[in-house]
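Example (one chain per record):
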Amino acid sequence: MNFKKSPFVCLVILLLCVVEARAMETNQLVQSAFDYYRGKASVSLCSMTIHRPDWERTITLKAWTLGQSESLFRITEPPKDKMNGTLKKGREMWIYNPKVNRVIKLPPSMMSQAWMGSDFSNNDLAKSDSLIKDYDHTLLKTLDRQGKKVYVIKSVPKPQAPVIWGMQILHIREDLIFLREEFYDEDHELVKALDFSRIEMVGKKLFPLSMRMQKAGEDNKQSYTQVEYLKLQFKDTLPARIFTVLNLKNPRQ
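Predicted structure:
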């Protein structure tokens, strides 16, 4: 028996198809922006300034990244922190403390703790593919900023995703540059935000060479962590041996 679809049913189907298509486009936009940010591989030298109302300290670190989820960070200055290292591979992270000559694998419960007393958590330190794997993305609105479109995207965790944020809000420019990332708790209250700036040419592409992580609230206006790229080079690949626990403890590169 054949049934003709009513105009209402056809309209519902059409709307569902449009919604699904837009969701796919938004997911692809986030994926493309993430891939643009990470690149295939990179080597960089950064300064990280932890600023508080009554004190400030700066550390210098060298960083290596490979693919979407492998990162190694090693402090070079000041001398008292030199050679402290952090290795991240997927969802796993290890830290090396040269004073006790020990490598410690961090349990999931410590991933949200502050890295070196900064406003970046262990999990924030390396922008990893959790944003792609663990969240669904919805376009909220489109803004115009200095003649370029900026897409404002709501990212909500997938069911059972092992993440600490109840929601993220992303600001991505039309040329795939991250401008802002907001982090919300389970009640959708803003906890902190990461702003990207100083967009300059690095090799053959534009890239934000400065970022500031700051917690929300009036009491935190004078507290933030500023990261500045001093050197940055994107590469096609890096040796896999760099991203090993052995190299974390005994660097040879």
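Caption: Confidence is low (pLDDT under 50) at residues 9-21.
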